[in-house]
Amino acid sequence: MHTNSNESAENYLETILILSREHPVVRAVDIANELDFKKSSVSVAMKKLREGGHIEVSPEGYITLTRSGREIADRIYERHQLISTWLIRLGVDPDTAAADACRMEHVISSESFEAIKRHIR
Question: What residues does the HTH dtxR-type domain cover (predicted)?
Fold first, then answer.
């Protein structure tokens, strides 16, 4: 499946958010391990995210989200959690629900997402 660069950036930001909750520091190698990507691919992506103002990288290589990066990550993470929960409630296997949520979270419109949110709360 081909991912566009926006979806890829959102996935990286979401991964940084999740890792930052589990680890004291997040490094490119942690992201590579989590996503099972080559460290070189992650380094290229981190450079783009840094240039886009979504992350900051310390001299030690510790990655933190900026305000804009955090907003995107929070939005994608919320979508993931909600869509995944909704699919599981509909009887979808949890692993399948998580995989589908990963794809849906990037392409669903805000309008549709808000409608699902209203419906399941």
Answer: 1-66
Q: Answer whether 5-66 and 71-120 agree in fold.
A: no
* Amino acid making up residue 3: T
**Positive/negative CA dihedral, 26, 29, 30, 31:** positive
Which CATH number is 71-120 given?
A: 1.10.60.10
Residue entry with tokens 């080559």: 38
pLDDT means per 10 residues, the chain with 121 residues, are 69 96 94 92 94 96 97 94 94 95 90 90 74
Question: What is the model's pTM?
Answer: 0.85
Tokens of 92: 């979808």
Express the helix, strand and coil content of the chain in percent, nearest 5 each.
70, 5, 25
